[in-house]
Amino acid sequence: LSTGEQHLQAVCDRFTLELDLSPEKPPVVNGRDGISAKGAGAGQASHYISFTRLGTRGTLEANKNTQTVRGLAWMDHEYFSEQLNKNLTGWDWFAIQLDNNEELMLYRLRTKSGEPDPYSSGTFVDRDGSAHFLDAAQFSLSPGATWHSNHSGALYPVAWSIAVPSLQLSLSQQTGLEDQELYTPGSVSPSYWEGAVTYKGERQGRAIAGVGYLEMTGYGQPLRFGE
Q1: Contact at 8 Å (CB) between 35 and 121?
Q2: What is the rounded CA–CA span in Å between residue 45 and residue 178?
Q3: What is the DSSP string of the chain?
Q4: In principle, which of 144, 158, 160, 201 could form an S-S bond with 171, CB 3.0–4.6 Å?
Q5: Are 142 and 128 in contact (CB under 8 A)?
Q6: Checking DSSP bridges between strand 121-125 and strand 103-111, what pairing results, if any?
Q7: Residue 65's pLDDT band (boundaries 50, 70, 90)?
Q8: Which residue, among 103, 20, 5, 9, has the nearest Cα to 69 in the 3D structure?
Q9: Short-list 20, 19, 1, 2, CA closest to 10
Q10: Contact 193, 216 (CB under 8 A)
Q11: Is the dihedral angle over the CA atoms 145, 95, 211, 138 positive or is it negative?
């Protein structure tokens, strides 16, 4: 792992997946000076490291047929010093790989009033791998069309509009599969939505597209922090 290269294997009754991941950019340390603040309280922070563009190759074996697969992956590793603020009910987190070799990570912490928490933030990664911190005032996340889960009863916004004016970047997000909820009845972990999404938009006046991963928590029931 000293070079960031990784090998992943998943095996079940129906398929076997093996992947080799190799970083195309250096790791990103999110936040300011290596600290990703999540609140004003002492210790309400995390260390948060990302590999935002991992070249991926491997094989998928299913029904006795083996196919070669290739693509891009993203890996996050985050660990906290303590739980989040009690005033928070959940978050919306976006990992975006654009087709011009740039990446964007954004997260919005949601308060009980429904407003975004000022400690929401993000990171923009340019073509050469340099990372740029974005505070909550530098971007906007606007929910659009929703999907209702018949499993949990939650109503999730599965379409979003994203704007980062300082980067001259605007994106419209959609998903080809609305039901990507992780339904966890009887678990200590509440159900939440986590899955693949696509993007179209403009960057500095030019058309752009991308793919990504979206995680949304606290829509079925508020998450309980610090209790």
Answers
A1: no
A2: 32
A3: -TT--EEEEEE-SSEEEEEEEEESS--EE-SBTTBEE-SSSTT-EEEEEEEEEEEEEEEEEETTEEEEEEEEEEEEEEEESSPPPTTEEEEEEEEEEETTS-EEEEEEEEETTSPBPTT-EEEEE-TTS-EEEEEGGG-EEEE--EEE-TTT--EEE--EEEEEGGGTEEEEEE-S-S--EE--TTSSSPPEEEEEEEEEEEETTEEEEEEEEEEE-SSSS------
A4: 201
A5: no
A6: antiparallel
A7: very high
A8: 20
A9: 19
A10: yes
A11: positive
Both tokens assigned to 202: 């403009």
pLDDT at 161: 99
Q: Report which of 169, 109, 110 is spatially closest to residue 139, judged by C-alpha positions.
A: 169
Task: Indicate whether 134 pLDDT > 70.
Answer: yes
Q: What is the pLDDT of residues 28-45, one digit of tens each?
A: 999 998 889 888 877 788
Which architecture characterizes domain 6-216 according to CATH? Beta Barrel (2.40)
Which residue reads 């009980």 in tokens? 112
- Quick one: 65 exposed, middle or buried, by C-beta within 10 A (0-12, 13-18, 19+)? exposed
